[in-house]
User: What shape does this take?
Amino acid sequence: MRLVILGPGSFLGRALSRKASQLGLEVLPLGRSVLDLTATGAGNNLAALLRPSDVLVFLSAITPDKGNGLDAFNQNFFMGQAVADAIARQSVNQVVYISSDAVYPFDRGLVSESSPTRADSLYAAAHLAREALMQASAPDRTSILRCTQVYGPGDSHHSYGISSFCRSAQKSGEIHLFGRGEEFRDHVFIEDVVEAILTAAMEKITGLFNVVSGRSIRHIDAADLIGKTLDQAVETVFKERKQPITHRHYCADHLRSSLLRRPATPLVGGIRAMLEQDDS
Amino acid sequence: MTMPKVGFAGMTHLAINSLAAMAERGFTVIGFDPDAGKANALTSGDLPFSEPEIDDYLARNTDRILFTHDPKALAECDVVYVAPDVPTDDMGQSDLTPIHAMIDRVDSAMRSDAILVVLSQVPPGFTRALSRSKDTLFYQVETLIFGRAIERAMYPERYIVGCAAPEVPLPEAFQKVLAAYDCPILPMRYESAELCKISINMFLVSTVTTTNTIAELCEKIGADFSEISPALRLDRRIGQYAYLAPGLGISGGNLERDLFTFCSFADEYGTDADTVRAWIANSKYRKNWPARILEDVAPESDQSLKIGYLGLAYKENTSSIKNSPAVNALPALEAYTLQAYDPMVDANMALPDNTTRVASAMEAVEGVDIVMILTPWPEFKNLSVKAIAEAMTGTILIDPYRIFTAADCQASGLQHVTLGR
Assistant: This one.
């Protein structure tokens, strides 16, 4: 089995490549410099590199912090088209598509894999379209992993969440929160996501999975936890809220019985790992 | 008319308990099963299940009871109840083949003027579609509760009887049988009776699901459902007998079967069953509570955690593990080491590699970090919390059914984790 990773330079891609190599798996990283999935002929070029026994992990995406308009949507969609085209030309053993919890609307208390989706943003629309493309291209051979906010050492994203809170706390002794930080959010540690991906690939487990911790926390409480873990004074600065308060809670039962057969890394453990890594 | 002779076809849990109650009420009864081994075992007093008092009932009425595998014996009967089990798959879909086979066998053996009563759980339309003459064909709703079967058979709250013509008085023999129980008799059309059984179970499930849904929120917001439930019982619209104990989803097979049947009919006829599907989804969700609560109480545990696992059956006083929450939770607990005890579930039941079956509750709790009580067996109430605490190395007692009180646990240094609080 060879793991072909599209998007190897991303936060998740780097962690996945590292772990896969540690496990002795053959890895083929295909970053933008090697293969631009938005370029004409990308599907053909990708197909030429694939083997029937490959597990194709499709991570590449323009994330909202890098663009959330029509241009980003188009690029994301073209990437999906290219991958679907490639699989049509050269079949692979399995496709593991890394999607996002952005596909779920905010108007539901507890989200599970059977919850309805809705494209409330172009980013969500692109993911839903790409999920459909993967399933159509590789029916019965596709694993769709919808990840909530992923955090951990090496996280380069600037999105509002644990990673940026930790960086800010270490750098300036401050964590900035919108409103009073009332919203609940789920955060999943990078190593848990990597384990889920590798389990899906190595055991050929297909289907739909929400990759979540199942334990949401309010931002204000997360900030408090970071302060306690850092063991230094961290000031929480409250900024004017620009969006209404929404909450995210996930049921992790399906993940727990399939791809991650152990408790998720507790937030305090993940935060500790982040702060220690960034310290060193 | 002399006392009617009553036959039961298909020696199931339902039939044997009904037969025992019928004999206790003074009727001569014949218990037929095509399996000679089963019939012979019953004749020897060897029951395939355990129910409180059933042995006594059978023992003191032996002169009125005949177990046989010869269908010709049914020719003596004035009323024959057909009560084989109706198997279901994992979704709750019924397999009606066995009951059809039994009815065909019985129909040809009994007298044409004798009354055939379908007692098994069947979907609406089943009885009317049978070929037997409709004035000798009836459907009767059963209300078996495992662990209380004899009580339910002896003292029914009412008889719900499906008829071709509800306005016509019941045949004399059948009327005599039902009247012996001194409870209201409610004749109605076949489909109403068949749906009535499903309706009863749907109301039970709705109460159970509402209870569980509220109890879950109680756990998050600092409420205690045990403080709320007495107030609910005093509301006449809810009632003192409502099922208001939080639990781990529906199990056993019968409730699930009825929900599946309802959804199937709703899909076929285009009626709304989203509420029913929500109950089914909630039940599935509830069954994973043991794994979720472990993460709550021991979030940073490593995989050497040892758990004393009390209970495997889906409820107390039964050996059935059908849709049991205790069994359902096992795959999600494979990271831990489990010592499991159940007083009645088959000792040869296959268990995952991380789970060892032990011979007693105290053996199960010996040296464990956490105790989980997932079937509310009455014998667990007789255990000493102090002894449990002393046997454990850890201090967490997960007790969804409140076998013990928080106060008793606290006094013994244990953290008591339960549903609804």
